[in-house]
Amino acid sequence: MTGNSLFNHITLVLHQPRFAENIGASARAAWNMGLSHIIVVNPEDTDWERMTKLSTHMARGLLENMKTYTSLAEALAPFQYIVGTTARLGGQRKEIIGPSQAAHKIHSLDRQNRIAVLFGPENRGLSNEELRFCHCTVHIPTVSASSLNLAQAVLILCYEILMAHQEIPVNAEPVSPRLASSFELEGMYRHLSEVLQLMDFLDKQNPELWMMSLRRFFSRIGLQSNEVRMIRGVCRQLKWFITRYRPQPEPFRIPNDES
């Protein structure tokens, strides 16, 4: 079985789901809203009988074609745009948007961009380190309990994606070209961090905190592959210049006791 072909470029990524029932219920929610691709990363339980009991026969095809990874970085590497979800706010979690806004952003992207919608484990959600992969972060507001069941959160995001699609005129042109993949961006961020540390620009106590601001900046812009290559070329040239021309410390010499 396949879902709505309009959404073949969108994949749900469930990071470390704890219960097989939640994977099955998430598959059913996705299927109801026309999405047909699921990835799970380090799942604790993938008991087939319990998954399919909650997915029902309609969404069984999603589970049969579901891909499993042991590394979140590897799972996200091919995607050009990644939407992360969070129940917690504050701290490093800035520039949070709502589900409807995220869905409209997804539909503003050209369909040649592969898009991942990332959900964290039921007991703790996504960590700050895991959210660094994301171009935007979504929070579903609630009145009392701050967090939703995994399948409930999946259903809300998928519903908003469907609604955003129905609001867009049939012949509307996407406003964004094909973006760089997560694999390309992560290589660039490592390269940038290395050079900025050589320049003593980053806080040595917490370089990732400073890098987070750069990640947000580049995510707002939406870099293409050729732009990532250009930035990495600048990094290579800066690294060469710094290592060649930075003053070297004086070599240690044993004091001469002769007077």
Give the key terms.
10 helices; Helicase, Ruva Protein, domain 3; 259 residues; elongated; 7-stranded parallel β-sheet
SSE topology sketch:
Blueprint: E1 10-15, H1 20-32, E2 38-41, H2 48-55, H3 60-64, E3 67-69, H4 72-76, E4 81-85, E5 96-97, H5 99-108, E6 115-119, H6 128-131, E7 136-138, H7 150-167, H8 182-198, H9 207-221, H10 225-245
Helix pairs in contact: 1-2, 1-7, 5-7, 8-10
Give helix % range: 40-55%
Structural class by secondary-structure content: alpha/beta
How many alpha or pi helices?
Answer: 10
Overall shape: elongated
User: CATH topology of the largest domain, which one?
Assistant: Alpha/beta knot
The major sheet is characterized as: 7 strands, parallel
**Which spans have pLDDT < 50 for at least 5 consecutive residues?**
none
| Extended strand count | 7
How would you concisely characterize the structure shown here?
The chain is of the alpha/beta class. The chain contains ten helices and seven strands.
What does the model show?
The chain has 259 residues and is α/β, with parallel strands linked by helices. The chain folds into two domains: 5-167, SPOUT methyltransferase, trefoil knot domain (Alpha/beta knot); 182-245, Helicase, Ruva Protein, domain 3, CATH 1.10.8.590. It has ten helices and seven strands. Strands 3-2-1-6-4-7-5 form a seven-stranded parallel β-sheet. Helix 1 (20-32) packs parallel to helix 7, helix 5 crosses helix 7 (150-167) and helix 8 packs parallel to helix 10. The model has no long low-confidence stretch (mean pLDDT 87).
